[in-house]
C-alpha cells in the first residue's frame, strides 16, 4: 500500500515511521521547508542563527517519544539534558525539588521540603494529590482546574507558586478555564508515575534536529516500501476515489491528515458529505487555539543561573507576562553564546501590546525578579517568536475526534485527537502511532516482530 501523510510535524512523522515499520510506502507532504510542525527550527535574522520556534521541554513520562527516538537510532541521553523536577522561582521565594527517594516518596519529600509554603499548605497539597490517586486520577465531569483546587482547599499562594505554573506549562490554559480531568491525566503520568517520570528533559539541540530530521534516513530492517519527504508542498485538494484518495491529483491507497485541526477541517470538508462527516467536522471547528510566545535574549556575557529553568511570577496587571526563564548559555556549536529564553504561556494579554512594549516589559520583569542572582548582563540582541496556534484551549467538555474518520481510507493524527493528553509533544507522537496502527489493522498487514 502507498500511504500519504499530510503534515510533517511530530504527529505526522510519528505516523510515517510506524507505517514504514509496517512495510508501507509512505509519502509525507509538509508545507514548510523544515520538519517539526509547531515544534521546529526557525531562522532568526535578529540573532543571526537558527532557533526553536518555542522553548519546549519533555518529561520522563514521555515514553512513546523516547521510544521513537531510540528506534531512529538516536542517543536520548546525549540529545536531552535530564534533571529531577525542580520548581525554583528566580526571586528565591519558592523552591520545590523532587528528591532521590523511590516513588511515591520522591513527590511527598518534594512537597514536605518545599520552601515558600506553610506547613498547612503543604499538607493540603499532599492531601489533594493523594485523594486524586485514590480516585484513580478521575475528577468530576466538567470541572475546571480552579474548581478542583478550590474543592481541595488549596491556598492562593500554593495556587500561584505551584499549581498555576504547572497548569499553564502542561495545558497552556489558565486554571479557571482548564479541564481538571486533562490536568489529572498529566499528574497521573508524571507526578504519580515512577520516580523518573517527572524528570524534566531539556533538548540540547534544536527541535527539528532532535529527531524529525532523522526520519528521512530511517530504514528499518526487513521493511519493504519506501519513505519520501516532500518539503514545501502544501496540499490543496483532497478527494475520495473508488480505490483510495487523491492529493492534488496524485493517487494513494490511504491518507493520514496530520495538520492542526483548522488545516484538517479545510481538507476534510472537501470529501463527500454525510451526517457522520458533518459531526466530525463540527468537532474540528469547535477547537479554539491559544498562543505561546518565547523571547530570546542574547546577552553581553554568560549569565549562569542556578537551574536551567527558573520560575517567573507573572502579573499581567503590572505588564509581567513571563512564567519561565531558561538558561541557554550551553548551546551546540555555531549558535550564539549567552542566550536565555523567557516563555509566556497563554500569551493573549501580551499580544495586545505593541511588540517593542511587550519585549521591554518582559526584560524588565526578568531583571526585577532575578536581582538576587546578580545583575542581568546587557542585552545585545533579542527576538520574540509567537506561535499563535501553539495549543488548543484545553477546556472542560471539549469533544476530540478519534483517529478514524467517517471517510474510508482517511485517518487523522494530531495532538487534538482523543489521546487523553493535552496539546503536548507526547500526545502528538501517540496520535501518529495510533493512526498507523489503525491503518495496519484495517489493511490486515502483519505487525513487525
Automatic annotation (TrEMBL):
InterPro entries reported for this sequence: Amino_oxidase, FAD/NAD-bd_sf, SQase_HpnE, Zeta_carotene_desat/Oxidored
NCBIfam families cross-referenced by the UniProt entry: HpnE
Coiled-coil stretches noted in the UniProt entry, renumbered to this chain: none
Span of domain Amine oxidase: 11-439
GO molecular function list: oxidoreductase activity
SUPFAM superfamilies in the record: FAD/NAD(P)-binding domain
The name this protein goes by in its record: Squalene-associated FAD-dependent desaturase
Amino acid at each position: 500500500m502507498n500511504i500519504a501523510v499530510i503534515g510533517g510535524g511530530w504527529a505526522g512523522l510519528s505516523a510515517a515511521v510506524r507505517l514504514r515499520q509496517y512495510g508501507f510506502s509512505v509519502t509525507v507532504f509538509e508545507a514548510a521547508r523544515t520538519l517539526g510542525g509547531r515544534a521546529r527550527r526557525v531562522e532568526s535574522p535578529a540573532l543571526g542563527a537558527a532557533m526553536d520556534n518555542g522553548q519546549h521541554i519533555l518529561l520522563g513520562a514521555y515514553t512513546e517519544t523516547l521510544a521513537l527516538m531510540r528506534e531512529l537510532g538516536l542517543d536520548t541521553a546525549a540529545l536531552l539534558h535530564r534533571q529531577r523536577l525542580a520548581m525554583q522561582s528566580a526571586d528565591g521565594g519558592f523552591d520545590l525539588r523532587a528528591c532521590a527517594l523511590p516513588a511515591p516518596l520522591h513527590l511527598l519529600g518534594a512537597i514536605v521540603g518545599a520552601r515558600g509554603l506553610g506547613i498547612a499548605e503543604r499538607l493540603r497539597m499532599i492531601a489533594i494529590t493523594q485523594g486524586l490517586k485514590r480516585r484513580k486520577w478521575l475528577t468530576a465531569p466538567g470541572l475546571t482546574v480552579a474548581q478542583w483546587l478550590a474543592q481541595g482547599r488549596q491556598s492562593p499562594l500554593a495556587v500561584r507558586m505551584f499549581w498555576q505554573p504547572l497548569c499553564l506549562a502542561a495545558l497552556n490554559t489558565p486554571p479557571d478555564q482548564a479541564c481538571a480531568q486533562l490536568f489529572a491525566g498529566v499528574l497521573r503520568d508524571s507526578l504519580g508515575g515512577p520516580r523518573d517520570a517527572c524528570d524534566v528533559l531539556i533538548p540540547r539541540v534544536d527541535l527539528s534536529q532532535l529527531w524529525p530530521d532523522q526520519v528521512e534516513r530511517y530504514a528499518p530492517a526487513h521493511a519493504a516500501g519506501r519513505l519520501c519527504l516532500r518539503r514545501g508542498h502544501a496540499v490543496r485538494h483532497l478527494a475520495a476515489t473508488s480505490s483510495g484518495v487523491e492529493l492534488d491529483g496524485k493517487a494513494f491507497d490511504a491518507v493520514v491528515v496530520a495538520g492542526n485541526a483548522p488545516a484538517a477541517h479545510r481538507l476534510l470538508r472537501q470529501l463527500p458529505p454525510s451526517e457522520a462527516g458533518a459531526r466530525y467536522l463540527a468537532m474540528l471547528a469547535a477547537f479554539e487555539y491559544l498562543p505561546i510566545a518565547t523571547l530570546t535574549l542574547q546577552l553581553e556575557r554568560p549569565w549562569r543561573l542556578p537551574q536551567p529553568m527558573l520560575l517567573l511570577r507573572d502579573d499581567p496587571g503590572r505588564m509581567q507576562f513571563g512564567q519561565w526563564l531558561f538558561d541557554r548559555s550551553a548551546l551546540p556549536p555555531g549558535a550564539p553564546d549567552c542566550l536565555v529564553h523567557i516563555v509566556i504561556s497563554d500569551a493573549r494579554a501580551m499580544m495586545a501590546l505593541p511588540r517593542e512594549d511587550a519585549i521591554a516589559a518582559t526584560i524588565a520583569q526578568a531583571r526585577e525578579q532575578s536581582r538576587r542572582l546578580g545583575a542581568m548582563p546587557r542585552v545585545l540582541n533579542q527576538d520574540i517568536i509567537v506561535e499563535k496556534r501553539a495549543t488548543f484551549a484545553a477546556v472542560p467538555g471539549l469533544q476530540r475526534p478519534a483517529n478514524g474518520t467517517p471517510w474510508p481510507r482517511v485517518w487523522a493524527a494530531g495532538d487534538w485527537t482523543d489521546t487523553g493528553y493535552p496539546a503536548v509533544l507526547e500526545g502528538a507522537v501517540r496520535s501518529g502511532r495510533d493512526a498507523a496502527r489503525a491503518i495496519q489493522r484495517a489493511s490486515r498487514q502483519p505487525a513487525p516482530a
